[in-house]
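Practice problem 4.
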């Protein structure tokens, strides 16, 4: 309210001053907004640029300079067609000349020639409804996002394959157990060097490859049955050396160099066997005209200097398993893809693209690390680092015996697959055991009751019709308190109604398909506990 003593002129002056003050305040507010907007653009993690209507950059923020590798002085004043491919620049130009917004994912070039994928939006600026005077460009680097999405799709693909493999594993492993087991028995009865001997070898080799393929598929979806134990890596290598000499071509020499006092490891030895076999088969393919395959072990101490550049491994004591060949080597552009599932350079029908991917998965599952060095024309070396276990002071001593153990104990064998039942009975009978067989749990109980002396061991498939192996084992232990149990199954660990890692000292587990030697050693080991 203006006091009465003020004149009309005074009131007019006051109003003009108020208007001027309002204008100043408005400009200050606009300046503050402009400064905040500028700070936001300067500090944004997305690349931002403003161009005039011919595409020349009039403003670029630090993030765009960091993404592109160019200095701000190099960006401002230039038409940035050097950031994109020619076809992409033309497509963007068509949209901008029509004064329309353009957005998409495009490959952008950095100053040093590298590329990244940018989620890009180009928006025309129309001040107060006029024609376009400028364009604002935002670029977000989504390279990592795309990589993660691709890894997710690959993981889902592997999960689907794993689910399929898990579904057929039981029945398929039953068949393979019979095929491979009887082939082994037949191999001992035919004359070495005869045509029949060669035929049986081919059957056994094909069966082993089929069993290996199932294990690989289960490994990818983490449905492979894992039984960690303290092992001597040298023992695994020595045992595998015998197999490799039968599998690898004669024109390839196999050499070993094993550290005398190796650190103890805790892992599933069959997984390491799978690693050695896969790498050896790949090495054979790389040496079509012959060569040398060298397998060595040594204790190593990985320093923080080494592990700092490899985030997937910690510093500490490891055992290094090295597998080297003198083959054709691997080209650099192929080397970076060799562990990708389904990636293969082999001809159609000669490779699944699963071998090295399963090797990588096994190593990572055991908290290890794998390095590869290769020179085209000179050969390839894989270095696999496996962590020393604190669960044992030393590695188990080497067992150089090759004979299968025998016995005279009484065994009740229960298996609903007649082929597997006949195979296991044949193997155990030849080892000297007294074997009572049954196709069902009910049949096994009735036959066991007729025995003069209590049976020493029950071998049973876990999944049986009507009464499963777990219930059968409980019923048999009620009848014969001292009986021991060996569970067998072709199912994977995720679908078993039992935690095989929590079995007591009177029980064990064996996965199908199994060999005659595996059955003989496992039975003897459980009976001797």
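Answer key:
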């Amino acid at each position: 309210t203006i006091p009465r003593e003020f004149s009309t002129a005074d009131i007019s002056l006051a109003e003009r001053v108020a208007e001027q003050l309002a204008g100043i305040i408005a400009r200050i507010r606009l300046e503050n907004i402009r400064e905040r907007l500028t700070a936001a653009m300067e500090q944004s993690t997305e690349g931002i640029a403003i161009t005039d209507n011919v595409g020349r950059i009039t403003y670029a923020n630090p993030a765009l300079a960091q993404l592109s590798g160019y200095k701000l002085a190099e960006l401002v004043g230039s038409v940035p067609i050097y950031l994109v491919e020619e076809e992409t620049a033309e497509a963007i130009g068509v949209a901008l000349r029509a004064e329309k917004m353009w957005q998409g994912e495009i490959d952008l070039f950095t100053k040093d020639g590298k590329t990244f994928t940018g989620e890009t939006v180009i928006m025309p600026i129309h001040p107060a409804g006029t024609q376009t005077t400028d364009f604002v460009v935002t670029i977000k680097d989504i390279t990592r996002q795309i990589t993660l999405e691709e890894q997710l799709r690959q993981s889902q693909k592997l999960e689907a394959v794993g689910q399929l493999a898990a579904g057929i594993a039981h029945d398929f492993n039953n068949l393979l157990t019979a095929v491979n087991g009887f082939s082994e028995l037949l191999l001992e009865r035919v004359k070495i060097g005869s045509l029949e001997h060669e035929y049986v070898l081919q059957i056994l080799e094909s069966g082993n490859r089929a069993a290996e393929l199932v294990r690989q598929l289960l490994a990818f979806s983490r449905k492979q049955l894992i039984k960690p134990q303290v092992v001597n890596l040298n023992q695994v290598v020595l045992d595998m050396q015998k197999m490799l000499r039968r599998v690898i071509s004669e024109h390839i020499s196999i050499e070993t160099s094993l550290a005398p006092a190796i650190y103890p490891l805790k892992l599933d030895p069959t997984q390491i066997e799978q690693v050695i076999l896969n790498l050896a088969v790949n090495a054979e393919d790389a040496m079509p005209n012959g060569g040398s395959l060298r397998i060595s072990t040594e204790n190593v101490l990985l320093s923080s200097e080494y592990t700092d550049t490899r985030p997937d491994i910690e510093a500490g004591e490891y055992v290094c398993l090295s597998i080297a060949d003198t083959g054709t080597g691997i080209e650099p552009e192929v080397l970076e893809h060799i562990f990708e599932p389904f990636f293969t350079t082999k001809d159609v029908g000669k490779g699944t693209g699963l071998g090295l991917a399963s090797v990588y998965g096994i190593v990572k599952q055991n908290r290890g690390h794998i390095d590869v060095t290769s020179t085209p024309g000179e050969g390839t070396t894989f270095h696999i680092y496996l962590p020393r276990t604190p669960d044992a002071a030393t590695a188990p001593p080497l067992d150089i015996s090759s004979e299968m153990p025998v016995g005279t104990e009484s065994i009740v064998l229960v298996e609903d697959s007649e082929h597997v039942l006949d195979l296991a009975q044949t193997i155990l009978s030849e080892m000297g055991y007294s074997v009572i067989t049954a196709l069902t749990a009910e049949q096994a109980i009735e036959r066991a009751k007729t025995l003069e002396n209590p049976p020493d061991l029950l071998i049973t498939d876990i999944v049986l019709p009507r009464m499963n192996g777990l219930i059968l084992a409980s019923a048999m232990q009620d009848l014969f308190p001292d009986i021991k149990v060996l569970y067998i199954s072709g199912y994977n660990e995720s679908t078993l109604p039992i935690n095989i890692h929590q079995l007591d000292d009177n029980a064990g587990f064996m996965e199908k398909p199994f060999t005659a030697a595996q059955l003989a050693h496992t039975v003897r080991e459980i009976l001797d506990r």
